[in-house]
What we know:
By secondary structure, this protein is an all-alpha fold. It is 77% helix and 1% strand. A hairpin with a 2-residue loop joins strand 1 and strand 2. It starts with a helix and ends in a 5-residue tail after the last helix.
Amino acid sequence: MVSLIISILPNALYLLVLKALDSFALARFKLIVRNMLFGLLWCALAFVLTNPACMGLPVSIGGVSMMPLIEEVMKGAILAYLIARHKFRFMAQCLIYGAAIGSGFSLLENIIYFYFNPSMAVGTSIVRGFGCAILHMGCTALFATILLLVYKKFSNPFGIVISIVPSVTIHFLHNTVLEKELISPMTALVLIIVIFIVLFILLFSYGEKKIYEWMDHSIGNDIRTRSAIISGNFSSTKSGEYLLGVKEQFPPEVFFDMICYMQLFLELRIDKQSDMLLRQAGFGKDEADTKHEERNAKKAELAALSRQIGRTGMRVLAPLIKDGEI
Length: 326
């Protein structure tokens, strides 16, 4: 019973963390569960193909285990298909859905492992259970995130090969270190967590930087974008193209609030920039107090919209409102 609880705990924590981060606004719960089931199915298939009691296919070449490669390819196959079909547009989606597949895979792997090792100490079970879950979730999410970044440049199998190499390498090194007992399981767990945190921070920073560079943040573009929102031609702008790409991932009311946030934010930024130009020319000083009160009221409205949109929605808006001191 303890082993069963330990095998489920990492997956339950995964769902709780997503809920706490408001990620279900960007990744629908039913899709997360579906991808977890995909991961569980791939694990069952891998077990049948490689277990000596079943098909018993060879899993090593020259004494080197090919299981890291086999497992990462199986987990990544569905993600590669979805990215090729343009189902994912943001790295947050890759992180969430990739981790979901890895979560399902590790869930069944842990259950199978604990079933065949019922006498394992509780402390060892916890380290092994969490280590397996974090490794599979992290490697699969890493593959999906890198593939999304390189797919536009290498929209062919070569891009998939490039993207899967880091995950297979981390998985292989992790297994090798534990098998040869080079470090303790607890140290390996902490190390793998640190590695994934650093990698995802770097990848997300790079991705956000690229989106920001693609956007035009001039006052002229702010005016054109705001006018496009008012006239119903938002899709013709880069900001509109960016936001409409994730429209289906948000509830209608949340997406509407995001558009309202953009419109009000642009209005405030245009007003501030215009006021600064007028002040430099020696005009507009008499209206300073009135404008200050109006801006504060609009900022309060922005804060209310931000709470309604949620953390994930605001993260999606981040590249559009960067350098957005208002």
